[in-house]
Fold each of these.
Amino acid sequence: MKTVLILAVASLCCGAGLAQSPQGASQASPCSNPEETVAVLLADNGRAPIPGFFQKRVVGLGDAAAVGIIQFLGDRKATVSKDSTSTEEIRRVLLIIQIAFEAPNAIQCSENRYPKATLVLLKYLSSLPTAGPVQDDLRGTAEMIEKLKATLKPSK
Amino acid sequence: MIPVSVREGSGKLSGSLAENQHILVAMDAGTYNVRKATCVFRCITCNGAVSFTVAANPFAVAVSGTLQMSMKDRWNTGSTYDVTSASDWSSSNTSVATVDQTALAHGISVGGATLSAFDYSEPLGGQDCNYYPSCANDMAVGGGGSAPGTVAPQITAIAPDQGLIGTTLPVIISGKGFGTIPGNVVVDIGSGIAVTIASVTDTAINASFAIAPSAAGGNYLVQVSVTAGGTTQSSNSEAFYVQIPSYLLELSTSVIANGVPGGCSTASFYGIETDVKYQVYDQRTYAIASSSMTPWEDDTFPTGSGSGKVCANSPVPDCTINTASDGTYHDAPVGVCNTVALNNYSFTQVVSMLVNGAKYKVRTNNFVVNSTQSNHGTITNNYDINATR
């Protein structure tokens, strides 16, 4: 929980720099709120279409995507022990994480380039009962993130 | 016909055409002075010029420019003659303007001068014009006129001759007669554009034009005034156009491959993602060559809406782009992917350009995506964008 809070603060700090609203523009920038961005992609039980508009926002999120996913999933939890994340949603989460880190140089906020929350999220997802059918995907994504992590210097 | 009974008197022989005309005089007998057509010596007056007019009056010529002057005289008979080439021409201030003997005036430097012409070729009307010794003059000739005028600076070109609203851009005003002292030069363009002069040579003014976000779009007239020798002369006017982002032209659309940033993740996905290149145009549909525009989109999807800066895909995905210096940009990815088929998936993209805090709508795309087979899909806006994966 502490990790989540710290990362949430970090991501909001970074998001302020990404969201620049023009005068008179109706601003609902997904850049400033990773949770809103991933919520669109996790809708319909993880089967919602992925518009390019949101896809390109995820590309720049990096570790903030994992923060947004944790916030989105946490918002649905009634208790600590209960979790309703479906297999399809896990599959979509993995896709979001892959997109979020597929172009590390595109991650504007340097503190989001290091996958701290992402590693925690992957570990959590792999422990869910619904993760059985996607264990291979989970492992593949984890390997991709581990490989990326090895090339990066952790942010403080 | 002079009656036989007339023994003396005077008469005037005139032609019907002008003062200079061959006239055949036949006499049976008499005393006749061939030149003066008189029979006796007495002081008489000539037909001739009574006034002279120089044109242009006043004259105005640009520095290094030329102006053809002219002079005409008017006779007592009412006739007028062009005596330009027969006259001697001179300038009161040859450092400002000169005039050659073909009456071509040349602007030398900014200031005022008077150009004069004197004609010796024709008799003066009302003056003595016979050879009789007791008469005062013999065929009096010579008269002329003058015209005051100015030599003004001249604008020959403004580069660039257009600029984007809400931006500040360097502008070079080319021409002649600007002098070398910035303090003596004023560039007037009207309200909405603030001009700062950086340097001045006689042939170029280096300035910056700050176009206010509130400036009206369209043509502004640029005029240069130069003060020299206590007088201020103004140039001709040249147009400068304020561009407002008004229209977006699709230049090309390409499909983004599977598995690369912006593309559908794998071949198992339905849908299509594209990279669309656009050119921003102004209200005349002239390209706006400026990197000061930030593309912005307001999108509406079946599942919600979103707004933000338009993103590009190359060299890396980037959602902080501005237009390139030629006013083009890429929007990528444009489309939709999914793990299930897409049937008439529709979304609207309203594109605007942000310039210095102002927002200018330039285009609306009503996209429709269809994909009934994985690794295949089509996208169209039912206008100029059609792509197939």
Note: Chain B has a mean pLDDT of 89.
Amino acid sequence: MHITALPIFIPMFAAAALTAVRHWMPRLLNDAIAIGVAIAVVVLCALLLAHTANGHPFAYWMGGWRPKHSVAIGISLSIDPVGAGLATFMALLITAALVYSSRYFEAADGLYHALMLVFLAAMAGFSLTGDLFNLAVFFELMGAVAYALTAFKTEEQGPIQGGINFAISNSIGAYAIFTGIALLYARTGALNMAQIGHTLDGHHADPLVLVAMALLFIGFLTKAAAVPVHFWLADAHAVAPAPVSVLFSGVMVELGIYAVARLYWTIFAGPLGPHIDALRAILIAFGTLTALWGAVMCFSQRHLKRLLAFSTISHVGMFVCGVGLLSAKGLAGVITYVIGHGFTKAALFMLTGVFLHRFATIDEFDLHGKGREIPWAVVLFAVGGLLLSAIPVVTLFFGKSLLDAAALDAGYPWLPSVFVVSSMVTGGAVLRVSGRLLGWGAPELEGGPQAAEAREEEGEEQAPRDYTPPLMLIVPAVLLLGAIVIGLIPGAVPAIEVAAGHFLDHLSYINWVLRGHVHFAPASTSHIEGFDYAYAGGATLGALALAALGLFGRPLRQRVPDLLLRPVVGAIGGLRQLHSGHIGDYIAWWTAGAAALGGASLIFLR
Amino acid sequence: MSFLPFAIAAWLFVFGLYGVVSSNNLVRTIISLTVVQSSTYLVLLGVGYVHGGAGAIFADIPATAKTVDPVVQVLVLTDIVIEATVTGLLLAMAVQAHKRFGSLDPHDMRALQD
Amino acid sequence: MNRRGRLGLFALAGAGLAAVLVIGFTGLPDFGSYHGVYGRVITGVAVTLRHGTDTITALNFDIRGFDTLGEEFILFASVLGIVLILRQLRGEQEEPHQEESEEHHFAGASAALRALGLTLIPTILAIGVYIVVHGQITPGGGFQGGVILAAAPLGAFIAGRYLGMKTIAPHVVIELGDALGAAGYALIGLSGLVFVGIFFKNTIPLGIPGHLLSGGQLDVASVFVGLEVSGAFLVAWTEFFDQALIVKRGSQ
């Protein structure tokens, strides 16, 4: 299609043009142009999605350098429904974030808009490209913009430290990716993913391929924030401006997961086919650790954005598990869940922005009772909490049902309970905050592991205000509505299942990219079982119970014998201490994660 | 000898990481980061090297001459631009960090301690 | 973690990662005996189909020109980021511009140093332009030449005239160069789409290999990239110099 490259070109060009005239542009025009460009990208990506959705993926060769004798020469955008759908979803979130920030920032000159537009182009390129090195280039582009946006509020300490930790962690991830690319290039003499996969097919996984896979995966998992390479995320997401956090949690992190899935099924599915069970176990181990770690950390936060950031880490754990199940159903579950989670988490970050804008604090206890001034914001916040617990029958619920079914199919009957814990705890934490906003529970925390924590948001505080622009509530309301209804659109979830089935058809991918022949094996769709409702209902009830426990549980806690309580409190405290904000610690953990993934691959996948 | 460049690359990667982990000055951290990145240059260029090959520039050599692989050189060029820009961005943050924290020691930056 | 814990963890993890890397690298072909298909195809294509004798430039600005688009915007966005991060904040102010004679003297520039710095400016400019426009023939091109061009105004700084450097390369102009270079490179892609129907497809006559005007879009791309790179580096340097020499410390 002629429009294929435009979702990347238009925002880039607009960003450069806005910068060229930025000293003469009024704020309103900046907002209007940025929003207009974002909407144009939504439309273009939706057209690509519509074109490919009926089983017509295609490769677009930049500069007309088509493959000769099935050897790729140029760079391709390899468009399939998953990539195009992800790009559409991402562009929708950026549009929402830009509309929201037109009211959120009192002063934002063209620099902010230009950076957001480059971010848009980078994420579109990342979703659409079919070339491994090009993927890494867009990874870095996304990174460079994101580091700068994290440090947007340079007058405070937090954003600077968060930006530094983010930039260093992700740069090291990128170097792992470059090394992995070099290894694959040495072996295959190719950079196009289809070409690399084609060349590796029929060979078994030797150490070079395994190490290349481990390096690429750990690099992209750094962006995705899987434990133990996740430390930067809580710092960066907590200090970035609310509209930027929306994009970080809503879609940027998920792009890391997307890259892992894309690389596995295009490149490594051939040589690793015989070891699928062992690889599944490795990825699920990482995912489970991430899901539980994030959940515990999430519930123990009182800083709202940090709480949401850890909830994202917990959900990333679910995504890693879902992709790690290495099945169409698991991938379809992840895609569905990412859509629901992205809209929900975006709305929650925006509402946090509303509280910060109005009350100049986002400390849970400082906000005690303040929510009565803006009841609608609290209602929306609580709805977000219920959605995170995957209450039937919202989009997240459909995603979780697919994940549960995929886990059972793959022989992991205990995995759904991990998902339940993740939903329950992250939803419960948000509901607890909603309750506190309404003035329920204790107004101040005494004793316990959190008492020593300082007010992290000091400095972020401008003067409190006595109004909230309606637009700042409308945008999250629309997003939450989207998170509720998208899964209910007839045919939406089955279409995702079909797209996921095609996504992991390794041989067909090589064929349609390098030769333009489209032929897929028929994909199957599944039904929702009764136990799915039971699981999801249980998770929602559990979330409500946890919220109540967090608000009113102190008398109860005093009755628990010290012998039982102390190890739990100590363990949580120890876990929290690891998040020291010290970049040296983070990179030591990163090295451990890379060594663990590499070592496990070399030992178990041969 | 044929493994030496790659052994050095592995050493640079881990040694650069050691620099980042052990650093007590942000500027040293950033320089260490570029050491890690140098490892990627070495792997990429080492991979594409051909004994006796000329650079793939045919201004004054015949079109049939033996050359080294040009693709990895392009990748390294991109890699270098990335290094220069990210280093610049990080140094800008270091300037601000020094203003906000009054120190460049990561140990003194405690805004994000959990 | 304390320092000991951190280094202890790293000792274990680093040893593990080193082992993983070395085991992986043992699978590489012996140093100097590479036979990849991609490189051979490209060396065949670059001169015959692109009329550029520098294969690397042909790859950079045409065959893999889309990578360079991303790379251009990494540079562009990073510089925007530097401007954003170092922008002046409440509580900070510029020292009032003083007379040229009173301006900050970098290490007390001597007369010889001044003469050298000022002669360097046109010399470096000439070399930079030469490198930029010959990128399709011999080693060089927009990136290499752009960095050299950006170094020219530094001659004024060496001569102890930082404000003079800002007069040669005013902030508005270099920022405009940065943005127009990035936009121009993106427009090369669009011109392919508009005139030939494919993004980044060459639309410019190829010329004779080895001649100044050859290689189609390679030369145009080089010029835009040179413009952007020189602008971007100057913006970044100016921002850092301003922090060091002009902006007064704010409240800590």
Note: The two ends of chain B are 48 Å apart (CA to CA).
